[in-house]
């Protein structure tokens, strides 16, 4: 790899010895990557000090070709520390949820420019201090977009088996195990499917294609938002093959 400079978001950090840190970043050009930050805690450290979660920075690291040793930080220039997000518990919890999604659903050592830009856009949307009714749509847009860009998007506009499109004004059956909508003709006895309205299914599809920064003025009816949150959580749990650690962003909205 040699010397590389790219944008990065900090996903995790652990102390290493008395003066150093190991940090995991989502980088735009190399996906997830762990870097050793030697001496960052020393007084007058010249590498930008210790890393905080979700710091957006321009990162330069060095790694020897054909070496298995962890890449070493050369320089780190913080672009945004997200002070408003850090000062608000609800926003910070959404940030932690974003970290969980990125740590689980992004690859190591591959360029991920679109997922990276979506993550930065989500943080910018939160940092702008949106009204509380916009938080649900922002979370759903981030979650749906990360799944979509990672190739894990559920099929919500047609039957996942026969590809027939549902008619308007109908309740659909969504089967997480089969990856989306299953029509009556294609269901096989008992399954784990749940009811989902065409409106909620279409809403999830559209949000997965929307820039979170455009959602500041959006408010969904509470009942619709809650059904979208429940559906997206079940679909996400299926992809992750485990419960979410960070459940807070999926908390239901009170009408
Ligand atoms: Zn079908």
Give an overview in words.
- The protein has 255 residues and is an alpha+beta fold.
- It folds into 2 domains: 2-80, Nucleic acid-binding proteins (OB fold (Dihydrolipoamide Acetyltransferase, E2P), Beta Barrel); 83-250, de novo design (two linked rop proteins).
- Helix content is 31%, strand content 23%.
- The strands form 2 sheets. Strands 3-2-1-4-5 form a 5-stranded antiparallel beta sheet. A 3-stranded antiparallel beta sheet has the order 7-6-8.
- Bound molecules: zinc ion.
- Residues 159, 161-162, 164, 183, 185-186 line the site of zinc ion (ZN).
How is the topology of this model organized?
Blueprint: E1 2-16, E2 20-27, E3 31-37, E4 56-63, E5 72-80, H1 83-86, H2 89-105, H3 113-127, H4 135-149, E6 171-175, E7 180-181, E8 194-197, H5 198-207, H6 222-240
Antiparallel strand pairs: 1-2, 1-4, 2-3, 4-5, 6-7, 6-8
Bound molecules: zinc ion.
The site of zinc ion (ZN) has 7 residues, from loops.
